[in-house]
Amino acid sequence: MILRLFFLLLTLATFGFAKNIDVQSGDFAYFGVSLPSANVAGEAGKITLGAFDAFGNKTNYFGEKERTFTLKVSGSATLDKTTFTPADFASGSVTVSVLNRVAETVSVSLYEGPSLLLAKNMAAGTFVPGFTLKFDHAPLGSFDISVPGKVIAGEEFNVILTARDKAGNILAGYSSIADG
């Protein structure tokens, strides 16, 4: 069969016959998810959902157009958009902003109705039911100083210095050497 196809193509090329073949993507089969590699509390990151056919081609054909997909995130993180329809995937993908002002690890999950969907982690190439995003502390932003209201001369007292990042999170274990 392959040999016949080769001779057919050779014959067509020899006699100057050529035709363009328009190969289009197939029906929607799965979502591919691209996540930011580094996340900092207080800074927005981007999550990209790509719609793919069974052969890994981006597609915007979902068959029935009444489908609704929901992206959910745990913890303190927020998304700028959580619900999607096939119309949102006109270019084959949609991008969502994720923001978390707290340094923590959160879960991201994709649903169609009540059903949790497997999605392909584009970085790892594996299908998983959800993704984790770790938000690291932002750089040092300020110090809180706590002092007692009244101190008697000659008695010991405590001063508490708390380091906070730019998003307001406490930086546990923070240490620095001051010059001067």
Description:
This protein has one helix and 14 strands; from the N terminus they run αββββββββββββββ. The strands form three sheets. The protein has a six-stranded mixed beta sheet with strand order 5-7-3-1-10-11, with no helix packed on it. Strand 10 and strand 11 form a beta hairpin. It is elongated and about 105 Å long. The model has no long low-confidence stretch (mean pLDDT 84).
Spatial strand sequence of the major β-sheet:
5-7-3-1-10-11
Overall morphology: elongated
**How many strand units?**
14
Largest sheet: 6 strands, mixed
Structural class of the secondary structure composition? mainly beta
List keywords for this structure.
single chain, 180 residues, mainly beta, 6-stranded mixed sheet, 1 helix, elongated
List the helices and strands and how they pair.
Layout: H1 2-14, E1 30-34, E2 39-40, E3 45-52, E4 69-73, E5 78-79, E6 83-84, E7 93-99, E8 105-112, E9 115-116, E10 119-121, E11 126-128, E12 131-136, E13 140-146, E14 160-165
Parallel strand pairs: 1-10, 2-12
Antiparallel strand pairs: 1-3, 3-7, 4-6, 4-8, 5-7, 8-9, 8-12, 10-11, 13-14
